[in-house]
Amino acid sequence: MSLSKPNASAGIATKKGSISLNNKELNSFEMAQSQIDTAAEMLNLAPGTHTILREPMKELHVSIPVRLDNGKIKIFKGFRVQYNNARGPCKGGIRFHPDETIDTIKALAAWMTWKCAVVDIPFGGSKGGVICNPKEMSSSEVERLSRGYIDAVWEFIGPDRDIPAPDVYTNPQVMAWMMDEYSKLKGCISPGVITGKPIALGGSLGRGDATARGALYTIVEAARHLNIDLAEATVAVEGYGNAGSNIAILRNDIPGARIVAVSDSKGGIYSKQGLDPHKVLEHKMETSSVINFPQAENISNSDLLELGVDILCPAALGNTITQANASKIRAKIVAELSNGPTTPQADEILYDNGVFVIPDFLCNAGGVTVSYFEWVQNTYNYYWEEEEIHQKLNKKMSKAFHNVLAESLKRKVNMRVAAYLVAVSRVVEAMKWRGWV
Fold this sequence. Notes:
CATH superfamily of the domain at 210-358: NAD(P)-binding Rossmann-like Domain
Strand order of the largest sheet: 11-10-9-8-12-13-14
Order of helices and strands: EEHHEEEHEHEHHEHEEHEHEEHEHHHH
Shape: globular
Strand content: 15-25%
Structural class: alpha/beta
CATH topology of the domain at 210-358: Rossmann fold
Distance between the termini: 19 Å
CATH architecture of the domain at 210-358: 3-Layer(aba) Sandwich
Radius of gyration: 21 Å
Helix content: 40-55%
């Protein structure tokens, strides 16, 4: 049955489980909605259920006054979006970025909803953000902004309502300030309101590299499925922040794969013989970029994406692989550590070309999974050893991968569509039990 879609201009049609968008590249939220449309049609959802899934449950816009070091007051615009809480409290990071938009926040909140569902943790999805450039701010200004954000949204969040975490340009220190501010406002210590905190404040062991480690577990399962020897595999990593540097280090250190290329916002480097990801990270810390690394050739980010490697890991911002370059992607596996790196049109091209994509909200779900572990530990005030965290994460990620793979093979659709079918089905089931639909 073909649904009458709330946004007819999206022009969705399924082909091998992919999406045709009438030659239109979408913004991030339109992209998220188009992916929901495809899942809704394939699951034969009632129009009312479909409509609920296309829009966030709550959307908050705030103005945050911050006194700068020069004494002047600057107003920062911030957001918090709670997309769907049918399966539990909302969960999602807070981003500090100069180009932040409400559409990006809504898309990320939607993807977080499906991410939590696909790995079967009892959270809904949310996301927050502030339009700012923390690279141009002092530490004290960032602290005042962090506390100001909580002052503006604290009645909107909570351990049983909405649990923030780090995201782009935020870190454990920012989370510590935010948890402290929330605790002051509540009049009691509330470690469970925030995850991604420092260990000293109730953070979880294993959280630092959780996104990359979770991705590694899915890559291992994908390689087994495709009969790829990871010890002999070549890897390119686009983006060398937390997720990118950690996946390069883990892929190098555990299975012994050869990291031939990495990049950041300033450009990339390539070495056919392989790069030492530890030394590349040291170089980046010293020079602020991976470029000009000794014994490596400088290349562009676009060159990196088109290398003939076994595994390509997009780990930067969204819309990296588009209709313009998808046909040039030669990797056997694309493991999406970043959110929304592949547009729907590019998805169709990759699928037709036999590229196996581990979709973002499955591949990068290790971070929210260990955040869930942190929340559980905060709730019980009992903390696990790092080895136990890794074991629990491996079990969650591997099971999620095989659930999605089974759906993909059963329906003969790509892994992203299969992941949506698994995740949306779980959210809809919870909505039905709660009497929403």
